[in-house]
């Protein structure tokens, strides 16, 4: 039977603290603190607040992240993204208006 949910969702009213291991794509619109490790893509929505190091295939940020981002394929920061941490990945796309306070390692 196919999984009816295409991704894992942490809604705006949800909070998680600790090691979060995500076996499939996920969207974070709530609050996460600790460490996030994903086998697929992770999307931090505009209401998302992540105080964690984040590792995934692809990372898309529209909210607020305090921690290092490590992507295996790409990092994309939307116009409302605020990242306080280092970015590491083969490809980084930054929209006009995004804010990054940290070092970049691209390539």
Walk me through what this model shows.
The chain is mainly β. The protein has one domain (8-97). 0% of the residues lie in helices and 62% in strands. The protein has no helices and 13 strands. The chain has strands at residues 8-10, 15-22, 26-28, 31-38, 41-44, 49-61, 64-66, 69-77, 82-84, 87-89, 92-94, 99-101, 104-106. Strands 1, 2, 3, 4, 5, 6, 7, 8, 9, 10, 11, 12 and 13 form a 13-stranded parallel β-sheet that branches. The mean pLDDT is 93.
Please sum up the structure shown.
The protein is mainly β. The chain is built from no helices and 13 strands.
β-strand amount: over 45%
Question: Helix/strand/pairing class, anyone?
Answer: mainly beta
Taken from the alpha-carbon principal axes, the silhouette is globular
How many beta strands in the DSSP annotation? 13
Overall pLDDT level: 93
Helix content: under 10%
What is the end-to-end distance? 39 Å
Descriptive keywords:
107 residues, mainly beta
Question: What secondary-structure arrangement, pairings included, does this model have?
Answer:
Layout: E1 8-10, E2 15-22, E3 26-28, E4 31-38, E5 41-44, E6 49-61, E7 64-66, E8 69-77, E9 82-84, E10 87-89, E11 92-94, E12 99-101, E13 104-106
Parallel strand pairs: 1-3, 2-4, 3-5, 4-6, 5-6, 6-7, 6-8, 7-9, 8-10, 8-11, 9-12, 10-13
């Amino acid at each position: 039977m196919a999984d009816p949910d295409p991704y894992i969702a942490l809604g705006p009213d949800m909070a998680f603290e600790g090691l979060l291991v995500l076996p499939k794509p996920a969207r974070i619109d709530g609050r996460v603190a600790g460490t996030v490790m994903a086998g697929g893509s992770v999307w931090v929505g505009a209401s998302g607040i992540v105080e964690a190091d984040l590792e995934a295939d692809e990372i898309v940020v529209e909210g607020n992240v305090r921690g290092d981002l490590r992507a295996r394929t790409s990092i994309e920061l939307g116009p409302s993204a605020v990242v306080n941490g280092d970015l590491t990945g083969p490809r980084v796309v930054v929209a006009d208006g995004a804010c990054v306070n940290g070092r970049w390692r691209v390539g």
